[in-house]
Amino acid sequence: MKQIKTLLIAATLFFGATSFTNAQSKIAHINTTELIQAMPSMKTAQADMERIGKTYQADITAMKKDLKTKTDLYESQVATKTQEENEKRYVEVQTDQQSIQQYAATAQQELQKKEMELLKPITEKAKAAILKVGKAQGFDYILDSSPQAGVIMAEGKNLLADVKKELGF
Known about the structure:
Blueprint: H1 2-23, E1 27-30, H2 32-38, H3 40-76, H4 83-136, E2 141-144, E3 157-158, H5 160-167
Parallel strand pairs: 1-2, 1-3
Helix pairs in contact: 3-4, 4-5
């Protein structure tokens, strides 16, 4: 009788542990920031952003140089001009400074807009590859282990290498 009771308890524990193991979800992690930075299309997008940024910066530098030239000319002619002309020139210089600041702000907004346009297809491609690899390997959850994503511990399967392979690099 004692053996049957022990056997019954052992069987209950075995089936309980087996069902608990089956109920656990499969979880993997991937550092999406690292993945996106490694993608060839991201390198192209960064080069485009750098080129556009340099163009805007060259324009701003040229505008500032023209303003400096104008300001130096006006300062050298202050004594030979009337008070009214000097005041008009001062207003003109102030307007030019505001134009430069406005252009710089607009350039910054355009850069951000362009960056979003360039990054959207890259992130969507990365997400699709992550989902494909995750489903193929039977994972229920895939956590983002990027530094600011909030994952504290990431000792599960890292899908980075598999997703890179899926993307062909």
